[in-house]
Amino acid sequence: MSVTFDLSDDIVMITGGGRGLGRSIALGFARAGATVAILGRDAKTLAVTAAELQAEGAKAVHFYTADIADEAALTATVGTLRAETGDPTVLVNNAGINPWFRRAEHVSMSEWRQIMDVNLTAVFHCCTLVAPTMLANQRGSIINITSVAGHVGLARSAAYCAAKGGLELLSKSLAIDWADRGVRVNTVAPGYFQTDLTAGLEANDALAAKVIGHTPLGRFGRPEEVVAACLYLASDASSYVTGQSLRVDGGFTAS
């Protein structure tokens, strides 16, 4: 079998695809020839990103507004996506939140549940919505975007670490469940990247210096630097790879 990164036969569904890492990942898949469907909460942002994809010469671009933590809304949206775009052969679960930076004793249960709902429960729901057709066709790749927070503990991020650590093990379990039917499940674990999620941290000189000091490559990552990892895991180049976590973190978890 020849190894190829050609994704022209693939339909790729990306949650949180309108901005940050999701936007860069969507652009990468568009350039690889895939049909791309992006989901997010902000229709205006999605429309702008969709226009960028089309300007890049994407074969087909679709965007859908949805709150992935709303079970009924997500189910309906994915049903519409499948009817209009086709059944996804690649799923990238990128959407995630970490809006609070505080010690665990100050995290309310409603805040805990919100982080779990978006970062873990909604990902499981997306997987189970898309997987049945992949399993029936014995072909599919699911890529869950986790974080270094799924591998090491971070201060003032108890809920986020718990959710991302849970997602790492959920992905391994799904990989085992679905391997015999041709569906691969892997994770990409970014370090600290220049996105909306880390804008406040990067703007704080002391905190930014602490992150950079712990990162052997000595800087924050650029969103486009996570794209190649996703293309690899989506393509035939990784046909013997499942249940793995690819850390794109500048060496953060190596030290």
Q: Can I get a quick summary?
A:
By secondary structure, the chain is α/β, with parallel strands linked by helices.
Overall mean confidence score, pLDDT: 95
Anisotropy-based shape: globular
- How large is the radius of gyration? 17 Å
Tell me the total number of β-strands: 7
- The CATH class name reads Alpha Beta
Number of helices: 8
Structure in words:
- With 255 residues, the chain is of the alpha/beta class.
- The chain has a single domain (11-245), classed as 3-Layer(aba) Sandwich (Rossmann fold), CATH 3.40.50.720.
- It has eight helices and seven strands.
- Strands 3-2-1-4-5-6-7 form a seven-stranded parallel beta sheet, sandwiched between helices.
- Helix 5 (158-178) links the parallel strand 5 (140-145) and strand 6 (183-190).
- Helix 1 (20-31) packs parallel to helix 2, helix 1 (20-31) crosses helix 8 (227-234) and helix 4 (109-137) packs parallel to helix 5.
- It is globular.
- It starts with 10 loop residues before the first strand and ends in a 7-residue tail after the last strand.
Which tags fit this structure?
about 260 residues; alpha/beta
SSE order and pairing:
Elements: E1 11-15, H1 20-31, E2 35-40, H2 43-55, E3 60-65, H3 71-85, E4 90-93, H4 109-137, E5 140-145, H5 158-178, E6 183-190, H6 199-203, H7 205-214, H8 227-234, E7 245-248
Parallel strand pairs: 1-2, 1-4, 2-3, 4-5, 5-6, 6-7
